[in-house]
Amino acid sequence: MSEIHLTIDGVEVVGQSGQTILEVAQSAGVDIPTLCHHPMVSDLGGCRLCLVEVEKMRGFQTACTCPATDGMVVHTETPKLFETRSLVLQLLFYERNHYCMYCPTSGDCELQDLAYRHNLDHWLFERPAENKDVDASRKYFVMDHNRCVLCRRCIRACDEIVANHTLQMAYRGSHSVISADLGLPFGDSSCVSCGTCLQVCPTGALIDRRSVYGGHREQVDRTVTTCMQCSVGCQIEVVSAHRRLLRVEGVWEAEPTHGLLCVDGRFAPLYDEQRERVTGPRVRRDGKLVDATWDEALDVAASGLKLGDVVALATGANTNEALGGLKSLMDRLSGKVGCLGATLPCLDGVTAGAVTDVPEADLVIVAGVDPLETNRVLGYLAKRAKDHGARIVVVCDGENTMAKFADVNLNSGQASQTTELVAQAEKPVVLYGAGLSSEVAANLRGLSKAKFLGLEPGANGRGMAELGIAPVKLNGAKAQLWLLGEEEV
């Protein structure tokens, strides 16, 4: 892209060809009001709040859709623009029930912020009497159509980020609402509960059941960490207040998934965790686990661990530190340590791929894994690639959720057909998992043009492999030590 020069509010700024006026302004630190704009989805210029004046162009222009050109002179703050934006806001408040004092997102609402910015303290028009439905059929969030401004962020997020295409507009004019699957309640729809629509909503239309009224943005703590639900490694931001977890959000600017999460990463830790937390040592007496002191627990453990006859099993839900500690202990006891469950097969000589390769691929081959069940975000990224023209090929002998989105479904005996498909592609990617058979693996090894991404069965399966922890044969021995991490048992 070539460099262009613009003048915005009397200041010369530099941008790149292909950028919009809004993008150039934001990169230069110029704040233009927006409501329907979100950096992760395409722009449509629907809210009309980003209107700007461009010299030698007739009328106002929407900054989010108007291409910036060299020599352009732009005005973002004029009395006429302020008046027009104020009128637009008045009409938005008029259309629905936007009583801020009763809204759960009051203080965290972009519409409310814009109203204060434009000095709106009363309505010019009487609010219509028609009330909209409140859809509370979804487990994790509520859709209140009375708070919706029809910005369509949620629709674009569902289409462009998640590639699920659940949401669309229904009805016309003042009766327009956001609809799920052409009129179904959210709870009966194809919604996958990824929560992306919830995070992009600028008002109180989509609200999280758990964190509502939990605290305003300036009252909460935010901690960026890595999701441990699977091996993808999505970056998450844990929002808490007063030592209470409120919600989990995606981090838009973070690799590898740029804010895209799944139901396991966003909601499961907060809603679906039903296990009793182990807060101290326990020993089994008369067939039951009872509380014990550390000395008692260690004495029982020591009596059960016999030198040279120790077998320990661990899962991929453990950290490298815990796995390393277990391995060191087993080495000192001359024992064995192995993994509990399946492991990723080794495909020697293939080109390693990355998560970011999946949405850019023009061919995605899925073999030995069901990403929409085990690594959901990768499944969404594969569907996004399909929306951009990619073909999906599923190699599976049983049931696979990805099969209904596949262009080609093959069984193990037909795996050799992937050779021709890869030869026709420019950016082929192979997603494979622990269920990969030796027959299919032999065919995939010959796909030198493709990039391979192995989906580990545990969050830290890669760490286990690097430490040399693999399946072991007990040969009649009984495992005496288990390191389960966060696995449910």
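[next item in queue]
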Amino acid sequence: MVTPQSEGKSIPPRVGLVVFDLDGTLADTFEDIAQATNHVLKAFGCPTLPTETIKGYVGKGARNLLGQLLGPDKQPYVADATALWLDYYERHPTDHTQLYPGAIELIEWLRAHGVRTAILSNKMNSLTQRISAELGLAARVDFVRGESKQWPRKPDPALLDHLIQHFGVKREEVLIVGDSVSDVELARNAGVAFCGVLTGQATREDLERLGATWVAENLVVLKSACEMFVVPPSGGRT
């Protein structure tokens, strides 16, 4: 089910723009990320880790991920480790990656009802674009962007603010859908509604504590909620 978590908040009654996270929200990318990470850990003489452990460190970029997992004695080598990680991951970005059930159906329902859609990720932009294309997402959404020098990463709201202006939607008509702390913080920083999904990193308790507007078990449940409660923008797509 989808449940409102913050007193006085709800999914916007009229939605003009839905912005999705990628990892853990639209797609289960964690096994491929873990494979690349363990490749680096082995190369630097560190023990490998289960995917579930690595999953908890995803969301703030490869350099941050490796900086935490390599340990204090290997911090001087984080840049080299990141380059090795990227070399491996760029060759295996979707070996095990799959869309979560309902991802395509939700996006297509939103588009059919005149709602703009976008993907914002803290993954490197070239990888975000490639993975989104290979999974069939890029052709279905209006905008895809990962980490780049042009825009600060989430939870900074600068790029989201740009999208709101670009698509000409009101802030109260924007919904962020994500699975992590950085996603709910992005929504909070931008002053827009947030729906958490429980397919990725954060627990329901994490999302509730940070003030998530709504929490859904998965995208199938979220689509059902949108069909019941969301009023598309008047006038359709422009």
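[queue empty]
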